[in-house]
Design brief:
The protein is an alpha+beta fold. About 45% of the residues lie in helices and about 10% in strands. About 35% of the residues are buried.
Length: about 400
């Protein structure tokens, strides 16, 4: 049956889309029901947006026939037995961005799911399934650092993404001496135009918008604070400081949510991390922004704990990768400062987002991650004298209340 009564009409539209695209129903072999047996779509959980995801079982011959029909090539060599069906309402979801950035990343040698077919106007898509193993669940025991090291290589590839043909040509030359870090970029004029004209900048207006999520959804709507004039002035000074620091960093292609729930390990159950590949998902919010941001998303992950000494080792490795690839020319200390600044900016926003998910979207599960997120903010405030007053503000109004 449909996931809930309010979505019946949209759900049946999704089934009609599948039928029109030649997606066979897994409950019938061959399909003779027009995809009306909706129980074959298995809902997936865990997304913070209004998108809905389903898994659909297909035999390998059916999958091969579907790919041939739509003239697409899967990214994985071994079919996992299922495909992903996406319902992303166009009124709220970035479907065009998803398709365009999927293309950008594929042409940057980043593993992303093949889009088998899509109706952008309705917000329906069928994607290649990259498996069941999230980065967050893939590394028991002492091997987990190898997975993080691999993630740093993927971040280097994203950050190096060329903005025009001349930049791509320079990377082609550099690749000859460093093929392990610099991929064979194959962006074309369509990609360059999209990157140049449609990937938004992480500019002052963007940062202010994100800061307002913190003030509205945490301070006002969760804690019901009435701030004094000096407190409002303090918040403005904090925003101005973080904005200046973010804008002073090198601006590169930025996933914007590069953490353990948006990376997948393939193939599944791989015994040797050297043999695995990392796939990237949930990339439709890409911007051009500070070089430290994606590192901050992973090294100060809201959903996973990294020990301090591990974070130090990973940051050192990231600096080596960025330096060797020509992405960053500064010192390790300078990169660490940039990452801490971005962690502050990001997690101040996230304090608001998790409360918005609870109050507006009825998703209280994210509240359990608030203490870790707040602790990241408090820790990183200690590295900047300009953040001392803000830390005192949080200790007075927020600590112990969320």
């Amino acid at each position: 049956m449909a996931p809930h009564t309010d979505g019946q009409e949209r759900y049946h539209a999704l089934l009609t889309f599948l039928q029109e695209q030649g997606v066979p129903c897994a409950a019938c072999d061959p399909c003779n029901c027009g995809n009306s047996c909706a129980q074959s779509l298995q809902p997936l959980n865990g997304d913070a947006s209004l998108r809905r995801y389903y898994r659909l079982r297909l035999t390998e011959p059916c999958f091969a026939k579907l790919c041939a029909q739509h003239q697409v090539t899967p990214q994985l060599n071994d079919y996992v037995g299922t495909i992903i069906v996406v319902d992303a309402p166009p009124s709220s979801q970035k479907n065009r961005e998803f398709v365009a950035i999927n293309r950008l990343l594929r042409h940057s040698s980043i593993l992303v799911p093949t889009i088998i077919c899509a109706d952008i106007e309705q917000g329906f898509m069928v994607l290649e399934d990259l498996g069941h193993t999230l980065f967050a669940d893939a590394f028991p025991g002492p091997r987990h650092m190898a997975y993080y090291f691999r993630a740093m290589v993927e971040l280097t590839k994203i950050g190096l993404m060329p903005h025009d043909a001349a930049a791509q040509a320079r990377l082609t030359v550099l690749r000859e001496s460093n093929p392990a870090l610099i991929p064979a970029y194959q962006l074309d004029e369509q990609d360059f135009a999209y990157y140049r004209d449609s990937v938004p900048p992480f500019d002052a207006a963007f940062i202010a918008m994100e800061y307002s999520i913190f003030t509205e959804w945490l301070l006002a709507k969760t804690l019901h604070l009435s701030l004094s004039e000096p407190e409002n002035a303090l918040l403005t000074r904090t925003l101005d400081f973080l904005t200046r620091e973010c804008q002073a960093q090198p601006q590169v292609a930025m996933h914007r949510d590069f953490h353990c729930r948006n990376l997948m390990v393939t193939p599944e159950q791989v015994d040797n991390p050297i043999q695995m590949a990392l796939a990237v998902i949930d990339f439709q919010d890409m911007v051009k922004g500070p070089i430290g941001y994606d590192l901050a998303s992973l090294l100060y992950d809201c959903y996973s704990v990294i020990e301090d000494e591990e974070r130090t080792a990973l940051l050192r490795f990231a600096h080596e990768c960025y330096s060797a690839a020509g992405l960053f020319t500064g010192t390790l200390a300078e990169l660490e400062r940039m990452v801490r600044i971005c962690a502050l900016q990001r997690h101040i926003k996230v304090l608001g987002i998790f409360n918005r998910l609870n109050l507006r979207d009825g998703k209280p599960g994210y509240l359990k991650d608030l203490p870790r997120t707040l602790d990241y903010v408090l820790q990183n405030c200690d590295y900047f004298p300009e953040m001392a007053e803000f830390k005192a503000f949080l200790q007075q109004h927020v600590v112990g209340k969320i």
